[in-house]
Amino acid sequence: MCWVTQHLVTGEWNHPYSREQAAYPAPWTRQNKFWPSVGRIDAAFGDRNFVCSCLPMEAYSQQ
């Protein structure tokens, strides 16, 4: 179960809005609800295919 779903349906609810309003904040979401992956980039593809955003090694060389 995804963290968002689990948080909505279990445990104590200490928020100023209802669980229903948290799950369906706009009227159209009741018909077209989408639960995104949480904490993952590009779903499982991103877990298996890392992309380095570092500078090239030449940028770290001493000159």
From TrEMBL:
Lineage top rank: taxon: Bacteria
Task: Quote the InterPro entries the UniProt record gives.
Answer: GDC_P
Q: By what name is this protein known?
A: Glycine dehydrogenase
Q: What taxonomic classification does the UniProt entry list for its organism?
A: Bacteria, Bacillati, Cyanobacteriota, Cyanophyceae, Nostocales
